Amino acid sequence: MADNYNKVLIIGGGPTTLGSENELDAAAFEKVIAFKKMGTKVLYLDNNPFSVVADEIQAANVFFQTINLENIINIITKEHPDAILFSVAGLLGQKLALQLYQSGILESEHVAIIGNSLTTFQTVADSDRLRQLLTDWNEPVIASRTVASDDDAVEFVREIGFPVIVKPLSTDHDTSRIICFNMDDLEAALQYSFDQTYIKRCSIEQSIVGFKEIEMVGIRDVDGNKILVTGLENMDPIGIHSGDSIIFAPTQTLINEEYQRLRTATFKIMDALNITGSCHIQFAQSRTDSDYFVTKISPYFTRNTALATKATAYPIAYVSTFLEVGHPLAEVRLPSKYSHIKPLLEPTLDHILVKIPLWPFEDIPDADQHLDTVMKSVGSTIGIGRTVEEAIIKAMHSSQFSPRDILPSVQNIDDDDVINQLIHPLASRILILIEALRRGFSIDDLAELTKIDQFYFYKLKQLIFAQTFVQTNPLTAESIKMGHQYGFGDGMLAELWNTSIQTVEKLNQDNNVQVTYKEVESSAGEFIENTNIFYSSYELENESQPFETDSALVIGRGGNQLGPNAAADYYTSQVLIQLHKSGYKTIVLNNNPNAVSMSPQLSDKQYIEPIQLGNILNIIRLERPKVIVLPGNRHYLAKNLKQRDELNIIVLPPDQKDAQLIRPEITNAVDYFIDGNVILPITTISYSVTSYKRNQRYNTNYQQPMNQFTQYGQKLIAEGRKQLTGGHWQGLVQVLFEETTPGNFKFAGIRPIRITETAFLTKATGINWVRVLVKKNLGNLDLVRLAELLSHTEPKRFAIMNGIFPFEALHARNHQGSSKQEVGASLQFKNIDQQKKE
User: Would you say the pTM of this structure is higher than 0.85?
Assistant: First the structure.
């Protein structure tokens, strides 16, 4: 029988970091929708200024505070929730759940923890206890021990021998797995690991580097009913962190007996731990026999749980919410767009999904770029196709932020470097594999050097054959058909043939070649589904039909990068929400598996495609959208799309190339909203912790309102208005100032308000400025109402946003940190009187 909870506190995932992108906020969004369907009031704790969930919950029920034990206890005693949900808070949530149990507050305040039990949390958090449970259930585990000192560690390593892997315990995000081949490595790894963990313990385990890494994602209800949503296969072997690996769904190289063995093991482990909700289990599978090991169990939402959702269209986070509160799996009712999917139907796929990671090394070049057991990627993109080759090309194409439809080349690297990178892989891993095949390396030798299954080299070799055929037979019917069959879009063909995309489009027409779209759904075509999630194909049947009413196409930002990062996806999500509110059917093109903007409830239709000109034109040709919203940093796309007079292009956010900076020092700003000749002041800003780069000063920490706003705020507002009057600026605009001496401010420039600051401004003022911009561009903004909202009383609190950087996680030098190197940010509010005391 399901428990009835009137009020639930959801613990969010916190700021974006290496190891956690937007997937936890996306899962929380799905869970909020599920709780609303149950009639449950939701409280939300998070300090991520780019959280979409925080904008979907009544402001009084959102707590922008650091996610820690003290703040959770304070919320419990003041708000008296019936239950707390930790499953979208990652490893940190698991740690906090245990601390709450130990504090006694749950018992005294009669608060339940939804989902897994105390015993489950304790077992998963204690590697020795987990090892014993798995051993009791006859599941093979790696030799492992938790140690509290260097002496304990050395004693254990002498028993099992090198190589070993050292992991800190109770870290917030699992990015630190250090492989050690000798005592010097061990000493360094222990020092780092003990510094990272609050309980001064770390785990040492025997290394199984070179095994296949297989991952299983399943769900289970309180009655023990369970399904396997999908299996995932890492192309890269154990030894490269899963977050940095190329991943395939479903699994590709397992024979049926191996797959069924791991599926059975997954179910046994979920039963042994009494899992309720979703569970993500990682295995090491031998390449030479049937042996396998259980390597990690995550009874909470992870980035690869999100990947399983994207691969199958099975709404894991939504369904898991009902299971966590006690509903049997068979009684869960799915949203209407999943009308034919039954919760107990185990997904079967007729397509392939490939994930390729994105790394931050261009922005942080001094970081160690070798791929190993420590996660270094900051994002990822996916490609979907009917074949492995097609999905690989689409994922590679999606992972390139180049404005042109061309893949990078490593042909200038000499043979010695190729061999070195095959053994010691870098971020250019897949390009090196392709280049090695081009140079005649045998598949057997490559498989031995890299420990990558031969299957993948045969697929890459097919891609090389296809590309060679296309290049040597330009502008022919045979080459265009082969190119499309292997995933080469029109833009890529145009680049390969050094011709215009219009020429390729004409060639398609002349040869009756037309793009079609297939639906991402979980029945392998058995049922006619309504997921409205599509990928391109060149088969005969098209499963995507245009809407009969006005539609809007929103171009997403793709995979996470440093800089705007999570804020860019927040922006895309808010654009979609406002377009829907304005009466449009919404269509989103994106390829980020962790994006909140890819949540099914945020759009009427999704396309998972490379964000390039040819792919966009194909969608436009089919959908005929009335409005197309394009990110401001996509100059090449904007230029080419605006040349087509029939298209209504809106660029949001505006491009920062229009910024006019006349002084390198920026200490303060005034934010304005401008519509026509009307200039509305919004607020004042103070900046701190800034850095220089190419004579330009970057601001990474913001405060609203500015320091001493009562003394100088109106003065700066008036000066800013003077600078803007009669100018060309529209929308959200900042006038910048430098405080040269106390109380003396010099005009420093004007710029459009950046993505990160727009999200911050929304949280700080309570007015959703992305949605205001959308309404302005659609011509339906109520300017009088907006002015009324801005005529508020004197601020009662400061909003403070601090940039977060990945330098420590990447073992990079101690940078000063620019806005282009931010991986995320944290948000807090302080009472103005409290700030004055500090």
Answer: yes
